[in-house]
Structures are given as structure tokens and as C-alpha cells.
Automatic annotation (TrEMBL):
It comes from the Eukaryota. It comes from Sterrhoptilus dennistouni. This is FANCC protein. Coiled coil: none annotated. GO terms for biological process: cellular response to oxidative stress; interstrand cross-link repair; nucleotide-excision repair. GO terms for cellular component: Fanconi anaemia nuclear complex. Pfam families: Fanconi_C. InterPro entries: FANCC. PANTHER family: FANCONI ANEMIA GROUP C PROTEIN, FANCONI ANEMIA GROUP C PROTEIN FANCC.
Length: 559
């Protein structure tokens, strides 16, 4: 069978021209240009390595006869070999081109040339000096080459930090001090060295630097590279430095938020503790203490929710983020704390204040009253004649959904406490069916009320059978509208968790619900939210907590 030698499209000529143009990057302009192109160059080198590995050295040289010139020039460019993994990728390319069994004089000469380049790169990676005078001088001082260059980098960093800080304190005398172009140039030259631990103090000083200009003084390439390295955990920055980065560079904040969502979607999360750990580790809830960051992150979450048709996974992530944000906001010093209106400027402030109250802040006996209070306020806003647009309706729905803990408590209170069912059922119906087109929400209320009345008749029965619950289970299966199905499942799950006879039927009934309806993920997310709240409240009996953990273990394999 003929070997497949399809070559991925590579912009080989472009990078060869660049390598010739740069030389060894001895001029200021060529150094700037190299730094600006380093991320794209590294990506090209990786593609080139994969191509050589695929084709083999002989065919690769036939396809790219000037490959030696390109690699040779790049190996002698200090900015290229100092950037991230470019040096490693260059070495891999050279190793792929090496002939293990040279057949002629050309291949022997090529092997010799490759060995010399590899030696050069290996020496460079150890900070070895090729200049005899420098080496002799360093030895006379009692240093190894590695020590000498390490101290050289540290001294350079200290010098630049001192220069930048002095410039900050000069205030209006900025013209007499470091120019904006000088600071911009420093930021560009940091790009290939960003992952060096000794450079971190300089990175943070640059991130805190603003000078006297209203325009961004740091290069966008620098800001993007710092953010990328932070997200990939290649560098460690202080929280305040990260916050400064996101405040001054919106694309970095957007990328960090999307990176968090991708991270949460790509792993199997078995508890809200895991979700909370990943979100908190991103530093976004802490950074959101600044209203500008909070509102931008919130908008991205809104878009993610709309793009995924309001999936329970995204909603749960938003609820955990909001909870962690409130924790960070409450921990802020009073003199630094922004008012709530700065975070929710377009919402009814009485409703915001009611929603942000944590359940543990109130006696359990007051929960049903508080839920009714929230429901009354939401209903009044929804029915307000001034709110005629879907956008206004969505904003109210989204605000309530962000504080979903009260929605879960509302469903519990329906079964556990003396509560006015109409108000609570309306709140739940609004959550699952915010639009009332063709009386959808009204129909949802009717369905939910029928299920609720059926479950309440069974609530006090200690000796229940699955047949007693069949009417509710069949109702879930028979409901065509997704919102009605999800609300009915929510009520039934709470019945199984909190009724005296529900525990022994929970696993069997849960199997019927998740196997015969599309509510599997909805049920799973409800259970992990409930487990999280119980584990942190200490108010529920261990029997319920044990049941929750058993149900979650069984459902984990299905979702």
C-alpha cells in the first residue's frame, strides 16, 4: 500500500522570510517583531515537527528543501530559543531529520550539522556562554555560568522594577521619566521570558503600572501571554496582579471565564464541593468583587445559559459562582466594599436584598415566610405593566435563578412546612416556565398543583409502595412540555427525600424517573445541590444525607 504523504498546510515561506529578516535579532525593531510573532511561530514549529514525523526525513527534505536554513537561523535567534517550548520543539525537529544510518556524504554532513546545532541548543538551555572571555571572567568571580546568568536576570529585573516604580511616583513629571514607548518595549521583551520564575516581580510591576496615559500602555501581546501562562498554571501571580490584568484587558477576562466553563464541562464533577473548588481556584469569584468584572462575567454566563437552552449544568455553575462571589464580597473590608446596586444596577433592590440572604442566616421556621416574600415580589415585577419585553422577563428570571438555593428550599417547604402553596407553586412554575405564551405557565401551575395535592395525601404514610407513587411518575412520563416535566420531577424527588416512607422507595422510583424521561441531568444536579446544602448546614439527619450519597453514586454512571 502506498504511504500517505499528505502534507498539512504550512506557511513555510513566510517563516523562512521572517527568520532571514530577523537574523540574530540584534536591532530593536527586529527584537520587537520577533517577540510579537513568538506564539504563532511556536505553533508553526509544532506543526512542522508533526509533519516531519509523519513524512520521514527524506520526504520532508524533498517537500521543504530549505528546511535546514530555516531551522539553523531560528536556532541562533536568542529570542526564539528562549520562548516557552520553542527550543524543545526545534530540538525535536532536528532529531527527526537526523539519519540513523547515513547512506552518503550529504547525509553524513547533515548529521554533523544537526549535532552541532543540538550541542548549541543544549548549551543554551544550561545558560552556557560561548564567549571564552566571559567564561573566564565568570570563573574568576567564583561563579558557575548558571549562577552568573541567574544573578544577571535578577539584577536586570530589580533594575527595571526600580525604574518603573520611580516613574509611578513622578506623577506629572512623566515626560522626564520613563516614556510610554519604553514601558511598552519592556512589556514586549518580557513575552519570550514570561515563564521564568525570576521574572514574576517584573510582570506584576508592569500589571500595576499605569503611567499618566488614559490609553493602555502595555502591549496586548504581553497581556495575552501573561493571561495564557496564568490559565495554564505556568506562572503564579498574586491575586491583585491577576485582578489588575483582567481590569485592564477585557479579552483576558473573557478568555478566563470561557476557560473556566470549558474546564467544568470537560470533567465529571460528583459534588458541588468539586465545582466550588474549580471555580474558586480560577480567582474569578474573588475578582468579581469589582463590579466591572462581575458584570462582564455575569454577561458571559447569561450567554452560555441561552446558548445551552438553560441546561441545569450551566445553571448550577452560575449558582455556585454567585454563592462564592457573595462570600468574597462579604469578606471585603468595609471601606473597599461596593454597594450591591453596583453589581445589580438594573434590578429591584428589595428583591436583590431578599435573594442574597443565605438560608442559614434565618431560623428554619422563617424560611417559608421568606420564600413567600420572594414569590410575591417576583410576581409583582412580572405582572408590572412596565415590563412588557422578553428581555425584562429574562432579567428577572435570571436574577432569581442565580440564587437557586431559595428555589430548592421553596420545593422543600411545600412538603415540610405549613406554607401557602399557591405562592410557592407560582414561584417554581415561573422558574421552570418564565414565559406565559399560550398560557404555558398557567398550565404548568395546574399540573404542579395536581402533583402536589397527590403527594401531600401520601406524605404522612409510613408504609408506601411504588404503586402509590405511580400516578406522579406516569404524570412525569406523560407530560409533553419539558418545563412541566422538570417541575414535577423536582416535587417528586423532594417527596422521596423528606417524606417518612419515601426513603425506601427512592432508588427504585429514581430509576423509573431517569430511565423513562429526559430529566436525568436535572435530577442529578438537584441532588448534588441538596447534598451540598445539607453537608454545610448540619441541620439534616444523617439518614437523608446517606440516601443522597447512595442516589448520587448510582446516577453518576448514567449522566
Amino acid at each position: 500500500m502506498a504511504q500517505d504523504t499528505t502534507v498539512p498546510k504550512l506557511n513555510f515561506e513566510y517563516w523562512l522570510d521572517k527568520a532571514i529578516e530577523w537574523g540574530q535579532a540584534t536591532t530593536l525593531e527586529s527584537q520587537k517583531d520577533v517577540c510579537l510573532h513568538l506564539p504563532q511561530l511556536q505553533e508553526f514549529l509544532h506543526q512542522l515537527y508533526e509533519t516531519i514525523k509523519l513524512l520521514g526525513s527524506t520526504i520532508a527534505i524533498q517537500q521543504f528543501p530549505l528546511i535546514g536554513q530555516l531551522l539553523g537561523r531560528l536556532c541562533w535567534n536568542p529570542f526564539v530559543i528562549g520562548y516557552d517550548e520553542s527550543q524543545k520543539t526545534l530540538m525535536l525537529c532536528l532529531c527527526c531529520l537526523y539519519s540513523s544510518e547515513p547512506q552518503n556524504a550529504v547525509e553524513l554532513k547533515a548529521n554533523s550539522w544537526i549535532r552541532s546545532l543540538l550541542c548549541h541548543l543544549l548549551c543554551s538551555s544550561k545558560w552556557e556562554s560561548n564567549e571564552a572571555e566571559t567564561s573566564t571572567f565568570v570563573s574568576a568571580l567564583g561563579y558557575t555560568s548558571a549562577d552568573y546568568y541567574c544573578h544577571l536576570v535578577k539584577n536586570m529585573v530589580i533594575s527595571l522594577i526600580t525604574e518603573l516604580r520611580e516613574n509611578q511616583f513622578n506623577g506629572l513629571k512623566i515626560q522626564e521619566s520613563t516614556s510610554a514607548s519604553r514601558v511598552n518595549a519592556v512589556s514586549i521583551f518580557c513575552v519570550p521570558l514570561i515563564t521564568l520564575p525570576d521574572l514574576t516581580p517584573l510582570l506584576e510591576t508592569l500589571l500595576f503600572y499605569h503611567g499618566g496615559s488614559s490609553k493602555e500602555i502595555l502591549s496586548s501581546e504581553f497581556l495575552e501571554a501573561v493571561n495564557e501562562a496564568f490559565l495554564k498554571k505556568k506562572i503564579s501571580l498574586s491575586e491583585s496582579a491577576v485582578f489588575s490584568l483582567w481590569l485592564r484587558h477585557l479579552p483576558s477576562l473573557e478568555k478566563a471565564t470561557l476557560h473556566l466553563l470549558d474546564q467544568l464541562f470537560s470533567i465529571q464533577l460528583n459534588s458541588l464541593e468539586e465545582v466550588a473548588h474549580v471555580i474558586k481556584d480560577s480567582l474569578l469569584p474573588q475578582a468579581a468583587s469589582h463590579p466591572a468584572i462581575f458584570r462582564i462575567v455575569n454577561e458571559i454566563f447569561k450567554n452560555a445559559l441561552m446558548e445551552t437552552d438553560g441546561t441545569s449544568e450551566v445553571m448550577t455553575i452560575i449558582q455556585v459562582f454567585t454563592h462564592l462571589f457573595l462570600q468574597a464580597h462579604q469578606n471585603e473590608y468595609k471601606q473597599h466594599k461596593f454597594p450591591l446596586k453596583a453589581y445589580f444596577p438594573y434590578h429591584h433592590q428589595h428583591l436583590v436584598r431578599a435573594l442574597i440572604r443565605r438560608p442559614f442566616e434565618l431560623p428554619t421556621a422563617y424560611w417559608s415566610q421568606h420564600v413567600k416574600h420572594i414569590s410575591d415580589m417576583v410576581k409583582a415585577l412580572v405582572e408590572d405593566i412596565n415590563i412588557g419585553s422578553l428581555i425584562g422577563l429574562f432579567e428577572i428570571w435570571y436574577l432569581v435563578a442565580c440564587f437557586g438555593e431559595w428555589l430548592d428550599i421553596a420545593a422543600e417547604q411545600l412538603l415540610k412546612a405549613a406554607v401557602e402553596p399557591d405562592a410557592v407553586l407560582w414561584l417554581l412554575a415561573f422558574h421552570y416556565c418564565p414565559k406565559n405564551e399560550n398560557q404555558q405557565r398557567t398550565q404548568t401551575m395546574v399540573e404542579a398543583e395536581a402533583v402536589y395535592n397527590h403527594l401531600m395525601m401520601l406524605f404522612s404514610c409510613a408504609d408506601l409502595s411504588l404503586k402509590d407513587l405511580e400516578a406522579a411518575v406516569h404524570r412525569i412520563r406523560g407530560i409533553e412540555q419539558c418545563c412541566n416535566q422538570r417541575l414535577t420531577a423536582h416535587l417528586l424527588i423532594n417527596f422521596l427525600l423528606f417524606s417518612p416512607g419515601g426513603h425506601k422507595l427512592a432508588q427504585e422510583c429514581m430509576y423509573h424517573i431517569t430511565e423513562t424521561t429526559d430529566t436525568g441531568k436535572e435530577v442529578y444536579n438537584l441532588l448534588i445541590r441538596t447534598a451540598y446544602r445539607f453537608n454545610h448546614s448540619g441541620k439534616e439527619n444523617q439518614r437523608t444525607v446517606k440516601l443522597l450519597n447512595e442516589l448520587l453514586q448510582k446516577l453518576t454512571l448514567k449522566v
